[in-house]
């Protein structure tokens, strides 16, 4: 797989800043102006991309109330899949305008397609990348069609066994597309922390030889920050204006202020992570002068012996290295020495 991927001119590789995706999902609450407000509020945050979802209730399921089409437990208890998706989908007629609006504010915008017609639509409006949702990793015909666009593909692995991931990657490669990013994901909404297993991120990168990241449905930013520290190069979180506004995804989404603060924390963490080196920064090199060294701490006459009483390891660091302390004990002074002089070899017989 490709180790450097370009989305709208931003390079994603092992040395690049984390690529941060704000997942709008259903948090527009079927209000176009609210969708635009979510995008607008992200404009100066350092967010790289806004993500939409491209489906309708009829393209993702059927209107059926058989038991397997009903949802039991969790945020969506009592819904049929069809009724949930009717409330959660993003109208397709909005999506080109939302993409262009995000672009005008310096962010990319792309989507998760949920059937072949959605891929055609995304191509028609010129979206720059594709996100394959966890539950769509089984849809090999759709992944094949996406790969054929030769655009970058981000694949979540929330319900995938290893063979599912291998199959999806193989299909992409057979279509001549190696611009694939894998996201560790646990498909639970919200997800308990103990189910996240984010140590899988570097393992996934090594196993599949690709760029990896995290799609995170936990509360807060801790898990995302931990993923960045472990090497995640792409992270995705749901965002809304206020959780109290409701909506199908509101209960596990970050509020806008929380998301923006998470972006700030990621950017600060990236600075702190650095490049992995034992070298000192210029300031720390200078601070070595404040370390300990050997000093004369009582006046010493010429010929007098050095003892623990008149030589000590103290701050600052302009004298001899303390590792010579035992070596110079018992030697004599070459000249008169005053309290506070840094010790050096030319003072010692």
Outline the secondary-structure elements.
Layout: E1 5-7, E2 10-12, E3 19-23, H1 32-41, E4 49-54, H2 57-60, H3 81-88, H4 92-104, E5 108-113, H5 116-125, E6 130-132, H6 140-148, E7 153-156, H7 162-174, E8 180-185, H8 200-208, E9 211-216, H9 222-229, E10 234-240, E11 254-255, H10 256-273, H11 282-287, E12 293-296, E13 311-314, H12 325-328
Give the tags:
2 domains, Type Iii Antifreeze Protein Isoform Hplc 12, 12 helices, TIM Barrel, about 350 residues
Explain the overall architecture.
The chain has 349 residues and is of the alpha/beta class. It has two domains: 5-273, Aldolase class I (TIM Barrel, Alpha-Beta Barrel), CATH 3.20.20.70; 282-347, Type Iii Antifreeze Protein Isoform Hplc 12, CATH 3.90.1210.10. Helix content is 32%, strand content 17%. It contains twelve helices and 13 strands. It has helices at 32-41, 57-60, 81-88, 92-104, 116-125, 140-148, 162-174, 200-208, 222-229, 256-273, 282-287, 325-328, and strands spanning 5-7, 10-12, 19-23, 49-54, 108-113, 130-132, 153-156, 180-185, 211-216, 234-240, 254-255, 293-296, 311-314. Strands 3, 4, 5, 6, 7, 8, 9, 10 and 11 form a nine-stranded parallel beta sheet that branches. Helix 7 links the parallel strand 7 and strand 8.
Quick recap of the structure?
The chain has 2 domains: 5-273, Alpha-Beta Barrel (TIM Barrel); 282-347, Type Iii Antifreeze Protein Isoform Hplc 12.
Task: Characterize the overall form.
Answer: elongated
The CATH architecture of the largest domain can be given as: Alpha-Beta Barrel
Uncertain segments: none
Q: What gyration radius follows from the Cα positions, in whole Å?
A: 30 Å
Gap between N and C termini:
67 Å
Instruction: Give me the secondary-structure category.
Output: alpha/beta
What share of the residues does DSSP label as strand, in percent?
15-25%
Q: Specify the CATH class of the largest domain.
A: Alpha Beta
Number of domains: 2
Largest sheet: 9 strands, parallel
H/E element string?
A: EEEHEHHHEHEHEHEHEHEEHHEEH
Question: In which range does the helix fraction lie?
Answer: 25-40%
Using DSSP, what is the number of strands?
13
Average of pLDDT: 97
CATH topology of the largest domain: TIM Barrel
User: Helical segment tally?
Assistant: 12
């Amino acid at each position: 797989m490709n180790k450097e991927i370009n989305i709208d001119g931003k390079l994603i590789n092992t040395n690049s800043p984390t690529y941060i995706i704000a997942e709008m999902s259903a948090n527009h609450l079927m209000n176009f102006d609210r969708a635009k407000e979510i995008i607008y509020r992200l404009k100066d945050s350092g967010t790289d991309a806004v993500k939409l979802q491209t489906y309708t209730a009829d393209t993702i399921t059927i209107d059926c109330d058989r038991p397997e089409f009903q949802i039991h437990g969790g945020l969506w208890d009592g819904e049929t899949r069809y009724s949930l998706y009717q409330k959660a989908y993003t109208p397709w007629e909005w999506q080109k305008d939302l993409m262009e609006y995000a672009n005008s504010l310096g962010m990319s915008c792309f989507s998760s397609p949920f059937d072949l017609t959605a891929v055609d639509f995304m191509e028609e409006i010129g979206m720059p990348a594709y996100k394959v949702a966890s539950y769509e990793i089984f849809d090999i015909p759709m992944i094949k069609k996406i790969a054929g666009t030769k655009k970058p593909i981000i694949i979540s692995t929330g319900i995938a066994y290893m063979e599912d991931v291998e199959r999806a990657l193989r299909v992409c490669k057979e279509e001549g597309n190696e611009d694939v990013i894998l996201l560790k994901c646990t498909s639970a909404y919200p997800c308990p922390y103990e189910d996240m297993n984010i140590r899988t991120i570097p393992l996934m990168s090594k196993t599949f030889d690709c760029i990896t990241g995290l799609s995170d449905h936990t509360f807060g930013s801790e898990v995302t920050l931990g993923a960045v520290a472990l090497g995640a190069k792409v992270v995705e979180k749901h965002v809304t204006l206020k959780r109290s506004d409701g909506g199908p995804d509101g209960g596990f989404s970050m509020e806008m202020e929380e998301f923006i603060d998470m972006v700030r924390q990621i950017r600060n963490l990236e600075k702190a992570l650095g490049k992995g080196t034992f070298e000192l920064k210029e300031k720390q090199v200078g601070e070595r002068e404040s370390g300990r060294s050997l000093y004369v701490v009582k006046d010493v006459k010429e010929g007098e012996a050095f003892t623990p009483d008149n030589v000590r390891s103290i701050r600052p660091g302009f004298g001899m290295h303390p590792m010579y302390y035992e070596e110079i004990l018992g030697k004599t002074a070459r000249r008169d020495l005053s309290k506070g002089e840094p010790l050096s070899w030319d003072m010692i017989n």
